[in-house]
Q: What sequence folds into this?
């Protein structure tokens, strides 16, 4: 029964490929090798997106405490429930550390605001200037295990 219910995750993954997260459009290939290459790239892109969503779960509206939610389920046939932490996050629109909660799309849009510019004044050597990350961006880097160069 749990394997059958897991099919909804596969369907959600294909929906994500086509519309919400990756926005992959149909591409018509004529050669089998190109079709396999295209499918491989789509699956790799989804794999990266999935890992990003897992790492960023505390900042997203997704349930980041699935083991607790699974313990609340009396049988595989029973409806799935969300954890108390996810209910609190949805009700307050804030994460456990008080930051606003995002959808994956809005968080990516927020991360897209980071810039790296190369500035040259006159004949001087070029200087690289990085924008300062916001608290949301800093938290995302922290969840990824990355340090933002300043």
A:
């Amino acid at each position: 029964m749990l394997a059958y219910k897991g099919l909804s995750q596969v369907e959600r993954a294909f929906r994500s490929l086509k519309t919400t997260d990756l926005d992959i459009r149909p591409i018509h290939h004529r050669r089998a090798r190109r079709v396999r290459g295209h499918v491989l790239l789509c699956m790799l892109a989804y794999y990266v997106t999935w890992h990003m969503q897992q790492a960023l779960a505390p900042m997203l509206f997704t349930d980041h405490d699935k083991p607790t939610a699974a313990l609340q389920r009396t049988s595989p046939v029973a409806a799935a429930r969300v954890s108390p932490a996810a209910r609190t996050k949805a009700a307050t629109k804030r994460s456990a550390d008080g930051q606003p909660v995002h959808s994956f799309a809005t968080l990516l849009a927020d991360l897209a605001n980071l810039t790296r510019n190369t500035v040259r004044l006159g004949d001087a050597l070029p200087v690289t200037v990085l924008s300062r990350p916001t608290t949301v961006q800093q938290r995302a880097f922290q969840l990824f295990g990355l340090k933002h160069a300043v």
Q: What stands out?
A: The mean pLDDT is 83. Residues 32-55 form the longest helix (24 residues). The CA atoms of residues 69 and 84 lie 8 Å apart. Helices lie at 2-18, 32-55, 66-71, 84-92, 104-111, 135-144.
